Amino acid sequence: VQLQASGGGLVQAGGSLRLSCAASGRTLSNYVMGWFRQAPGKEREFVAAISWSGGRTTYADSVKGRFTISRDNAKNTMYLQMNSLKPEDTAVYYCAQGDAYLRLINSLVDYWGQGTQVTVSS
After folding, report:
1. Would you state the pLDDT for residue 27?
2. Three-class SS of residue 54?
């Protein structure tokens, strides 16, 4: 299984970015997906999760109302739309795949993707 994250970059505060996570080697539609991030000197933290159908989503309080997680099972791809970005959102963002919703939220995932860097300047 490979999870390929992309879409990171440098953006000014208040700007937007859209991250993508493409899965190969495993049908994405059967599994829970999520995004995590790790800022320099900090532990990796949960950002957002989405159920296999897309009907259930969960967000960290720090991103609620600004980020939107979504998925296109036909394309085997998950997305994270990030709006109103803040300097504190600067981190390496990782996508993850798991078999249980609450386990994934607690970082108990089956597969991690490689990270994509998001840098928000003030």
Report:
1. 74
2. coil
Name 116's Cβ contacts closer than 8 Å, sequence gap at least 6: 5, 6, 7, 8, 19, 92, 93
Burial of 110 (0-12, 13-18, 19+ CB in 10 A): middle
Distance CA 38, CA 35 (A): 11
Alpha carbons 89 and 81: distance in angstroms, whole number: 13
* Angstrom distances, CA of residue 24 to CA of 35, 37, 66: 17, 21, 28
State how far the alpha carbon of 29 is from the alpha carbons of 9, 35, 51, in Å: 27, 16, 9
What is the spatial distance between Cα 41 and Cα 49, in angstroms, rounded to a whole number? 24
What confidence tens digit (pLDDT) does each residue in 14-23 have? 999 999 999 9
Q: What is the pLDDT of residues 46-72, one digit of tens each?
A: 999 999 999 999 999 999 999 999 999
